[in-house]
Amino acid sequence: MNDFLGIANLDRGALERLVESASRFRHDRSFRSGALAGSRIGLFFEKPSTRTRVSSEVAAVDLGAHPVVLGQTEVGIGSREAVRDVARVLDRYLDLVAMRVFDHRMLVEMAEHADAPVVNLLSDIEHPCQAVADLQTIAEHCEVAGSVVAYVGDGNNVCHSLMLGVAKLGGRVRVVSPPGFEPLEELVARGEGRITVTPDTEAVDGADVVYTDVWASMGQEGEASERALAFAGYRVDEGLFARARPDAIFLHCLPAHRGEEVTDAVVDHPRSRVFDQAENRLHSMKAILLELLG
Ligand code: CP
Ligand code: NVA
C-alpha cells in the first residue's frame, strides 16, 4: 500500500489486514510502541473534525511518531500555493501526509507529486479511514462475509467507502436512498452485485447492521432544508430499526444530527454501537499508519 486514498483501489488482503490489526489494538487499549519513532506525520484539515483529528494525532503519538497539524487558513493549499508545490514542500519535511479535503482530486494531485504516502481523512468521494473502523465494528458483531448492511440516507463519501469495504469482505449492502441522492453508479458497479440501491425502506428488513449518516455533509449546509424534504421518509427511528434483525446493531460515523437522520432513541439504543465505532477510529488509524510506515 503506497497511499490510502480510498477503499475502491484497495485489495481485499490489505483491507483484511487493516481490520485484523485494528482489532488487535482494541484488545490492547494500552498499546504504546516506538514502531514509528522518528516519523513525522502531517495532518491537514480543510474542514472541521473531532474524531479524525484526535484519533489520528493520538495514534501517531502512541506509535512514537510526531504529528504536525495544519489547517487550510494557514496553508492556503490551491489558493496561496499550488497543490503540487505544497506536495513537493511537505515531502521534504514529512514521512506521511494525511488530508481532509473538499475535492478528492486534490488528494490525487498530492499523491502524484509527493513521494510520502498520502492518506484520505475524508473527501467528497470517500472516507476510507472511517470504513476500516466501520468494518472492525461490524466484525465485532458478526462475520462481515455473509452479513447484510442496510445503509439508509445520502449516497455520500461515508456510504461509498462503507459499501465498497463490506462488499470487498464478502458482505452485502442495501443502500436505501431517495431518488437523486444515490451513491455513484461506477462505485456501486465495483461491488460486483453485492451492492443494491433502492428508494424502498423495506430493504432494511432482516439486516444485521443499520447505518446512517447526515443528510447534508460538510459544505452542503446551504442545501440542508431542501435535503430535509427529500429525506423526510428516511429517518432511522425505532420503527425502522425494528425492521432489521432482532439483534441488529446501529452504526453512524458521527457527528449525528439527532432528530434529523436518526432519533435519540436509536443513537442511545442498547444495540447502538456508535461510540465503540468512534473508539475504533483510533485503533484503525494505528493499523493504517503502521501499514504505510511500519
Ligand atoms: N466520523 C468522523 O470523521 O468524524 P469527524 O468529522 O469529527 O472527524
Ligand atoms: N458525510 C459527512 C461525514 C462526516 C464525518 C460529511 O462529509 O460531512
CATH class of the largest domain: Alpha Beta
Low-confidence stretches: none
CATH architecture of the largest domain: 3-Layer(aba) Sandwich
**In total, how many beta strands?**
9
Instruction: Give the H and E element order.
Output: HEHEHHEHEHEHEHEEHHEHH
Distance between the ends: 11 Å
Number of domains: 2
Sheet having the most strands: 5 strands, parallel
Number of helices: 12
The general outline is globular
Descriptive account of the structure:
- The protein starts with 11 loop residues before the first helix and ends with a helix.
- The strands form 2 sheets. A 5-stranded parallel beta sheet has the order 7-6-5-8-9, with helices on one face.
- It contains 12 helices and 9 strands.
- The mean pLDDT is 97.
- The protein is globular, with a radius of gyration of 18 Å.
- By secondary structure, it is of the alpha/beta class.
- It folds into 2 domains: 137 residues, Rossmann fold (3-Layer(aba) Sandwich), CATH 3.40.50.1370; 148 residues, Aspartate/ornithine carbamoyltransferase (Rossmann fold), CATH 3.40.50.1370.
- Strand 5, helix 7 and strand 6 form a beta-alpha-beta unit.
Short description:
The chain has two domains: 137 residues, 3-Layer(aba) Sandwich (Rossmann fold); 148 residues, Aspartate/ornithine carbamoyltransferase (Rossmann fold, 3-Layer(aba) Sandwich), CATH 3.40.50.
What is the topological layout?
Elements (H helix, E strand, L loop, with lengths): L11 H16 L12 E6 L5 H12 L3 E6 H4 L7 H11 L2 E5 L3 H10 L4 E3 L7 H14 L6 E5 L4 H12 L3 E5 L8 H5 L5 E4 L10 E4 L11 H7 L7 H4 L7 E4 L11 H4 L6 H20 L1
Parallel strand pairs: 1-2, 1-3, 3-4, 5-6, 5-8, 6-7, 8-9
Helix pairs in contact: 1-6, 1-12, 2-12, 4-5, 6-7, 6-12
The structure holds phosphoric acid mono(formamide)ester and norvaline (NVA).
Phosphoric acid mono(formamide)ester binds next to helix 2.
